[in-house]
Design goal:
Elements (H helix, E strand, L loop, with lengths): L1 E12 L3 H8 L2 E2 L5 E2 L2 H5 L10 E10 L2 H5 L5 H11 L8 E10 L7 E4 L2 E10 L2
Antiparallel strand pairs: 1-5, 1-7, 2-3, 4-5, 6-7
Length: 128
Amino acid sequence: MEKEGFVSLWAGNVQSSEELDRLLVVSYSDEGDFIPSIFAKHINIRRYDDAVREAEYYEEVSDDLNQLLEGFSYDDEIVPRFTALVQEGLPNDINAIVLLYNFEYTGAIVEVTIQSNYFRFLGAVEYR
């Protein structure tokens, strides 16, 4: 799953910015073992580098992937690639984006609902 030069994208609908942060927080045990976030546990990701994770909550919902990805790292590379990959379009109620860089998600879970919050995996593309 960790793969240099790839970025994996989830789009979702969450209740608030604080809720998105709560779902994405990672921690470590007293022994220094990585404890995945609630989000990662629900999509069966055991480990990723949280330092290269980006996420954003938007007050307004959207179905415009170009607009949602604007301003993220490597957006000039990833926007056209994700746009080509996600040809059927997005649901019109997206207000959150999660990007894991140097990570190519290959899991089977495409959609997940976590305590009234919804995420859909849109794919993974090279960003460099």
